Amino acid sequence: MALKIVKGSIDRMFDKNLQDLVRGIRNHKEDEAKYISTCIDEIKQELKQDNIAVKANAVCKLTYLQMLGYDVSWAAFNIVEVMSSSKFTYKRIGYLAASQCFHESTDVIMLTTNQIRKDLSSPNQYDTGVALTGLSCFVTPDLARDLANDIMTLMSHTKPYIRKKAVLIMYKVFLKYPESLRPAFPRLKEKLEDPDPGVQSAAVNVICELARRNPKNYLSLAPLFFKLMTSSTNNWVLIKIIKLFGALTPLEPRLGKKLIEPLTNLIHRALDLLYGMVSKKNLMEIVKKLMLHVDKAEGTTYRDELLTKIIDICSQSNYQYITNFEWYISILVELTRLEGTRHGHLIASQMLDVAIRVKAIRIFAVAQMATLLDNAHLLTGNMQRNGICEVLYAAAWICGEFSEHLENPMQTLEAMLRPKVATLPGHIQAVYVQNAAKLFSTVLKSQEGSTEGTAAQETSQLMIDRLPLFVQSANLEVQERASCILQLVKYIQKLQQKEVEVAEEVSALFAGELNPVAPKAQKKVPVPEGLDLDAWINEPPSESESEDEQPKAIFAKEEPKHSRSRHTEVDEKELARRREARKQEQANNPFYIKASPSSQKVYQESPGVEHIPVVQIDLTVPLKVPGLPMSDQYLKLEEERRQKERADKKKKEKKKRKEKRSGRGRRHDSGPESEEDITPAHMVDIVTEEMPEEYHLNIEPQKSLIFERSQK
Amino acid sequence: MIRAILIFNNHGKPRLSKFYEHYTEDTEQQIIRETFHLVSKRDENVCNFLEGGMLIGGSDYKLIYRHYATLYFVFCVDSSESELGILDLIQVFVETLDKCFENVCELDLIFHVDKVHNILAEMVMGGMVLETNMNEIIMQVDAQNKMEKSETFIFQSTRQDR
């Protein structure tokens, strides 16, 4: 007897395990079938042994062979034996084999009922877990009926690991034995509010599946799911619930209305994710998708959100992700088509920013802006504050400042002086007038050189004819600028009549470049010697004086000024706070020019403009301003360009790969190439914001560095 | 619901096959071949979702796949599952394998398919998504591995006694 056992042990040492089997099969590529048949014979021998470890090993190998397509149902009884082992390791092997090959017509399944019941009540949670997992694959109506109660009890197990599995398997039990649903349902509903999120997800999963089959019966759960949707942060759960609502809403129209708000919040959260998602590669496509949404979201605040988002993601990190600025400008121009937007100023400021800081793009930008000015009548339908007419502000400024790039400055000048311009908001008119002057100077320069002597004088006459309309404007800023320029032009005309060349001097008025200043620039300007910024410039007035001198409020009731609030030693904190506030204000404006509140205030007070009923032109056909390219063309171009780059690269890589020997290669995502591979369409020189010179070079501090206009 | 999870290599050899619906072994092999055929001819930069083959349920089911080096991971799901969610699940699955096998590669799956099944069992049960949090999954897998280690150790010592 002992000898038999020893002999058996020695034999067992030569038993193949799973790895040996796999290796063997790989080494017998020519006679694989024959080899496997030998192995199966060995397995059959092993299954005859008393030793449960040996049986488990054999069953493990059979599971592998089943994957290769071999029928292993003849070993079903042995599988049940292995499932019954007291050792978790073997039990697991048994249940796995069962889940792979047991099905409803497997006759030994009946033998498993008691074993499964035993495992479900095991003190070891992993025994229970493994039984539940296995059962979920081969549960039959009989098993379902016999084990439903045990599983229901497990839904309230102390361990969430078990509760989760029990809840999830209930769905399979319901499928095979529908009568189990009714008694189990209350407990299932309870699980929707289980403290463990995994259990909660499982419950949501099950009920969503049930509801898909029979939406009517679960309509009453809608409020509970609504609460879950608004409180849950688990994306899987949210997706399931939203799909569920998709099935329920056709049955209950009121539900649809109630869903709008939380769904909008979700969409906002998703939009926020875009920030982090954006890269050089995908920016253009993402924006294209967003533009589609913008088109669809006609007349909603959502549209404005999208607009802000598009601009945010494009402009973030100093336009880091934009590879083709022409594309971006055309996107901005397309955005001008939006009726009823409140973000016209945002688009305008972007256009300005890009035109100023990306020198290479100026020619293109100027051409676009000129077309926009020409077709301004299409945009002036919306006169609202921050409406889309704001882009004309940008267009006029860009055409004026970079007028040297204009193809037909005369035409643009003419467009800027049309009578219709006077219907624009005041601050925009003011820019028009000022930049008309700049254009005038450019036109003069080109015309004076030519032999046509009268052209220059005609231009001056044009100015003189058109400006008076603006001189009469109710807006003070417009009035002032127009008057100044009109006088200037009249003077120029006089000189012209005397045959004096004026173009040079006129262009000197606008010489020099305005560059954006870094927000920190002011801070870096060192304070000159002997200057104490915190000292009072004038002595603060004494108490008695201030009371006497209080001006009588004539037009408006002013609050009495507190003389006590003035101390000679001002609080350090107060100073710091004021400094911060000042810095903030300046940082928001790249030109360090304070946004002129005066013109806007005037606009507010000017009677009648806001009260004029605005006729909404509902253009069902997207506004296509002639001469402006659609941004899609750029997307296509960019894709073609990248494909070509990729194709060229692949050829190079193929050559390299043939030379390399392939070994145990590292798994890697064979996705698209990395960021660095994308070469931008044109190299852009983004003008970095200016810093005060002496910050870099340490020279005298007296120079005014905010505006560098070199005077001739 | 998930109908099947398949992993096969660039030549169509199965490395893991889990069906949550019963088919005969022959049909299973046919499905694997059909799925391989559908998925392998896809270009690298096209969508990761496509309609299921006839054998697996046709247009009611979708195949969601990802290609990692020499392996295709394919999930066949019905319309109750979110495509992007499943795509994410595949990523979680692969990352979990990577953690458990330390720089996982195809050979690990070839020689230890039982371990892969054990990991998958903590993520998908009966065709329904059980757990999507990688840390939770790994925690459970590790606990069960510990149990296995402690049992085999005891076993080895008694074996020597025999």
TrEMBL record, chain A:
It comes from Gouania willdenowi. This is AP-3 complex subunit delta-1. Residues 570-702 form the AP-3 complex subunit delta domain. Belongs to the adaptor complexes large subunit family. It comes from the Eukaryota. It is a peripheral membrane protein. GO terms for cellular component: AP-3 adaptor complex; axon cytoplasm; endosome membrane; Golgi membrane; presynaptic endosome; terminal bouton. It is found in: Cytoplasm; Golgi apparatus membrane.
UniProtKB/TrEMBL annotation, chain B:
Coiled coil: none annotated. Keywords: Cytoplasmic vesicle, Golgi apparatus, Membrane, Protein transport, Transport. The keyword Translocase does not apply. Pfam families: Clat_adaptor_s. It is found in: Cytoplasmic vesicle membrane; Golgi apparatus. One of its GO terms (biological process) is Golgi to vacuole transport. Residues 1-147 form the AP complex mu/sigma subunit domain. Its main location: membrane. It is a peripheral membrane protein. GO terms for cellular component: AP-3 adaptor complex; cytoplasmic vesicle membrane; Golgi apparatus. Part of the AP-3 complex, an adaptor-related complex which is not clathrin-associated. The complex is associated with the Golgi region as well as more peripheral structures. It facilitates the budding of vesicles from the Golgi membrane and may be directly involved in trafficking to lysosomes. In concert with the BLOC-1 complex, AP-3 is required to target cargos into vesicles assembled at cell bodies for delivery into neurites and nerve terminals. Belongs to the adaptor complexes small subunit family. This is AP complex subunit sigma. It comes from Gouania willdenowi. The gene is ap3s1.
